[in-house]
Specification:
Strand content: over 45%
Number of strands: 6
Strand order of the largest sheet: 3-2-5-6
Oligomer: single chain
Largest sheet: 4 strands, antiparallel
Structural class: mainly beta
Distance between the termini: 10 Å
Order of helices and strands: EEEEEE
Length: 71
């Protein structure tokens, strides 16, 4: 952290979605996954700023939340 284009996440808890929100709480990106151990999320299209990433399980329940900086 910070990133310029790729965000690497580990998916050890069978997560199925990653949602990225800007500081206004607007969803700006959505990634679907198929229970992989690690993946790279392309956030290169985002404007510079601070974002929140929310990881959801198969039932749509939040399992983890974190912030990251996009340069």
């Amino acid at each position: 952290n910070p990133t310029t284009g790729q965000l690497f996440v580990r998916n050890a808890e069978d997560l199925e979605q990653f949602r990225i929100y800007n500081m206004l709480g607007q969803e700006v990106l959505l990634f679907q996954t198929a229970s992989v151990s690690q993946m790279s999320l392309d956030v290169g299209s985002l404007n510079p700023g601070v974002y929140t990433i929310l990881a959801l399980d198969g039932d749509g329940q939040p399992q983890a939340k974190s912030k990251f900086v996009k340069n």
